[in-house]
Specification:
The chain is mainly α. The protein is built from twelve helices and two strands.
Length: about 270
C-alpha cells in the first residue's frame, strides 16, 4: 500500500508541471480576454489614473470641499502620453493584458500551486493553513486596489506636476507610464502578503513575537525604504504606502504571538503525555 500511495521524485515533478500549466493557462485565458478588450481596458483602467476625472481625484476634491478648502482638488495633470517605438503600442498591449490576466487569475493560479504544496504538510499543518487561498487572495486584491486607487494617482499627480522649469514639457513614453503603474500595483499586492509570510515563518519556528517586537524599529526603516523604492520621491505618497504596511506589521506581530502560543501549548501537551 505504501508503494502505491507514495510518489517518486519524477512523479512529483510531473504533478507540479501540470499544476503550473493549469495556473499559466488560467492567466493566459484572462490575458486573452483583456487583449480582446484592450481599448476598453486602456481607456477605463490603465489610463484612468492619468485623468482628472479619476474617482480618487474626485473623492479628494469632495473631501477638500467638505473642510472648506480646495487644497486637495486636482485641477490638471499636465502631461501627454506618447509612443516613440514602432512596436511600442503593440508591446504594451501584450504586457498590459498579461498583467491584467495575472491579477484576475491570481486566486485560481495560487490555488493550483497550493494544491501541490498542501499534501506535503502534516495533518495539523493542513488544518492550521485551512483557508490559505482565501486569505492570500483577499490580501493580494487589497494590495492591488490600494496600489491602483491610492498610490498610483498620488504618484502620477506628483510626477506630472513636478517641473524643474516651466519650459520643460512632460511628454511621457507609453512604456514608462504602463511600467510604473504596473510596478506600483503589483508591488503593493505583494507587500500586503506580509501577514501570510509571517504566519508561515512563525509556524516554522523562524520568527517569534519577541523577535518582531525587538526589531520593530528596524522593520519600520525597511518599510520606509521599500515605500521610497516603489513610489516617487514624494513624502506624502511614501507615507500613504508605509502606513498600511506598518499596520500589517503590527497585525503580523499579534498573529505571530497567537501562533507561538498555540505551538507552546501543543508542545506542553506532547511532553505531558
Amino acid at each position: 500500500m505504501a508503494e502505491e500511495t507514495e510518489m517518486g521524485f519524477l512523479d512529483h515533478l510531473e504533478e507540479l508541471r501540470w499544476h503550473i500549466m493549469r495556473a499559466v493557462f488560467s492567466i493566459g485565458i484572462f490575458a486573452i480576454i483583456a487583449f480582446v478588450n484592450g481599448s476598453f481596458i486602456f481607456k477605463h483602467i490603465i489610463l484612468a489614473p492619468g485623468r482628472v476625472d479619476f474617482i480618487t481625484y474626485k473623492m479628494l476634491c469632495q473631501l477638500s470641499n467638505a473642510i472648506g478648502s480646495d487644497i486637495l482638488c486636482i485641477e490638471s495633470l499636465p502631461f501627454t502620453i506618447q509612443n516613440r517605438a514602432m512596436t511600442g503600442q503593440f508591446s504594451m498591449h501584450i504586457m498590459a493584458s498579461a498583467i491584467i490576466g495575472l491579477v484576475f487569475a491570481f486566486p485560481y493560479a495560487f490555488w493550483e500551486i497550493w494544491r501541490f504544496v498542501r499534501p506535503g504538510l502534516h495533518r495539523h499543518e493542513q488544518k492550521a493553513t485551512r483557508g490559505a487561498t482565501f486569505f492570500v487572495t483577499v490580501l493580494f486584491m487589497m494590495g492591488v486596489s490600494f496600489g491602483y486607487f491610492i498610490v498610483s494617482p498620488l504618484a502620477i499627480n506628483f510626477l506630472t506636476n513636478y517641473q524643474i522649469d516651466a519650459s520643460i514639457l512632460n511628454e511621457i513614453d507609453l512604456t514608462s507610464y504602463v511600467s510604473t503603474l504596473a510596478m506600483i500595483v503589483l508591488a503593493c499586492g505583494v507587500l500586503f502578503q506580509l501577514p501570510i509570510v509571517v504566519f508561515f515563518l512563525a509556524k516554522a519556528g523562524l520568527v517569534t513575537p519577541s523577535f518582531m517586537r525587538t526589531y520593530r524599529k528596524h522593520a519600520l526603516v525597511m518599510i520606509l525604504v521599500i515605500s521610497a523604492i516603489i513610489t516617487p520621491p514624494d513624502p506624502v505618497t511614501q507615507m500613504f504606502v508605509a502606513l498600511p504596511i506598518t499596520i500589517l506589521y503590527e497585525f503580523s506581530i499579534r498573529l505571530c504571538a497567537r501562533v507561538h502560543k498555540k505551538m507552546l501549548k501543543e508542545k506542553e501537551l506532547i511532553l505531558g503525555s
